[in-house]
Amino acid sequence: MTKSLFLSLLLSTFLLALPIYAQVDLTPGGTFQVTNDAPFAHKGASLARLPDGRLAIIGGHGTGFVSLDKIQLYQNGNFSSITLPYPADASGIARLNDGRILIFGGSSDLGIPAYSNACIFNPSTTQVVSTGSTNLFRAASGAGTLLDGRVLVAGAWWVHNNAHTQAEIYNHSSGSFSLTGTLNSPRSNPLVIPTSDSDAVIIAGTEPTGSSSLFPIERYNRVTGVFSVERNFLISANDSNWIALSDIKRPIDEFRLNDGRYLLFATRDSNQVVNYALVAFHPASLVAERLNVTPQLPNSLEVSFVNGVYDATRQNLYLLAAVQPDHRNLRLYTVHLPTLQRNNPTGSFNYENYPYNACFGLLPNGNLLLSGGSTDGSNFSPTARTVLITPNVLSASERLSPITFALHQNYPNPFNPTTVIRYQLPTATPVRLEVFDVLGRNVSSLVNARQSAGDYSVSFNAANLSSGVYFYRLQAGDFVQTRKMVLMK
Fold first, then answer.
1. What DSSP line would sit under 49-67, residue for residue?
2. Which of 13, 130, 254, 394 sits in a 20 to 30 Å window from 445, CA-based?
3. What digits encode the pLDDT tens for the residues 205-222?
4. What is the CATH number of the domain that holds 191?
5. Maximum CA pair distance of the chain?
6. Is 176 left (phi over 0), alpha (psi -120 to 50) or beta?
7. Burial call 3-24: b when 16+ CB within 10 Å, e when fewer
8. Residues 316, 245 share a domain
9. Residue 467 pLDDT more than 80?
10. CA–centroid distance for 372 within its chain
11. How many domains does the chain have?
C-alpha cells in the first residue's frame, strides 16, 4: 500500500467517525438520540425542572407496578438518584416560592392510594426532609402555590375516603397541612392555578374513578376556604365542549407564559375523533382563550399527543405525539407562541416503547429529554429508556451543537507516536483533559481551560514516552470519563 493511499484511508475512516449532523433525520420534528438509560425503569413519575438546569424525575412506579421511592436527577448526560422517605407513585408536587419542591401523598404498589406522608426536596442541597402529613391519604392530587406562599391541595384518585372532594392547605411556615373547603365536583388530577388576587381556580381533572368529564371551573377563596363555581365551561358557552388536560405531573409554574397567562392543552371529542387546541388562561380576568395555531394541530386520526413542555426562553411549546397506529413511533410538534406558527413534521422516530406516562422535560440548551414509559403499554413493564431530542426549529448553531457530553476513543489506537482525542461539550464549561500512565501518574495535561459548546479534537504526541497502556480522562463540569489507549513503538 502506498503512503498516499494509506493516508487517504486513514482520513476517510476518521471522517466517518465524526458525527455528521447534515445527514440526521429532521422529518420527525427534530433529531432523536438514544442516551444513557435512567437508573430505574419508571412510569407515571412526576417531573420538575430545577434552577440549575437539572431535571428531577420524582417517584412513579417500576417493574411489577412497584411504587418507587427515588428521585432520579438528570444533568449533562448523566443520572444520579436520591432516596425518598417513602414511595411516591402518583404523588402530588408543588414548587414553593423559595424553589423547593413539596412532595406529598401517593400510592403503594399496584397503584393503591396509601400515603399521607409529605417531604420537601431542596435542589440546592439535594436533601430531602420530611414535613407535616396530609389529613387524608391521597394520590393523584392537584396542587398549586398561592401568591402568599401556601399550597392548595385538591382532588384525589378513587373514592376510598373524602380526599377526592376535601381540599387541604399546606402552610410553608409551620410545615403543616390543614383541612379547608370541599369541591363542588369530586375529581382527580385537577389543575390548581393561582389567581392574581392570591386565590386559586380548580380546572378540569378526571372522575375519581378515571373517566374524563366536563367539570366546572371552581374558584377558591383563601379567606373563607370556600369553593364556588365560576362557570361550567372552559372557553365559552358557545364553545363549551373543550376539556383541559390536567395530568401534567409537574409544577404548574412551568406552563406560565411570559405575559403571565397559563398555557393549557385541551381536547374535544367529535364523532369519536379527538380534536386538540391550545388555550391561554389569564389568572386576573379568569378568561380562557383558544389560540389560533397555524396550521391547526392534527387530530386523533393522525396522532395521539403524549406530553408537552414550554420553553420560556425561546417561547416555544413542544408537543410530543405518538403516530397512529403504532404508538411507539414519535413526532415532535413545535408551536412558536408569539406567532402561533407550528412546524409540520412528516416522519417519525421509533422509541421502541410506549411513551405514555413517560417524563418529557426541557434542558437548558433548548433540547428535550424523554425518559420512561413502558415496553408493552401496561403498568407492570416500565422502561428506563431515555432519548435526547433536538428540535429542528432551533437555530443552525444550536442544532449543530452536541446534546451530550462525550469522550470518544482516540484514533489511531494503537498509535505511534501521535493520536487524536475527540470530545464534545453541549454547554460551556471548564475542561481538563489529562493523560495518565498505569500507575496513575499524570504524564501530560492537554487542556485546562473553559470552553464553549462544540466538538473538539486534540493531538497527543507520545514521542517521549515508552510503549505501554495509558489512560486519558476528560473532566467537564460534573462530567468525568476515562478511556484507555495503547502506545506501540
1. E-TTS-EEEE--EETTTEE
2. 13
3. 999 998 878 899 999 999
4. 2.130.10.80
5. 89
6. beta
7. eeeeeeeeeeeeeeeeeeeeee
8. yes
9. yes
10. 10
11. 2
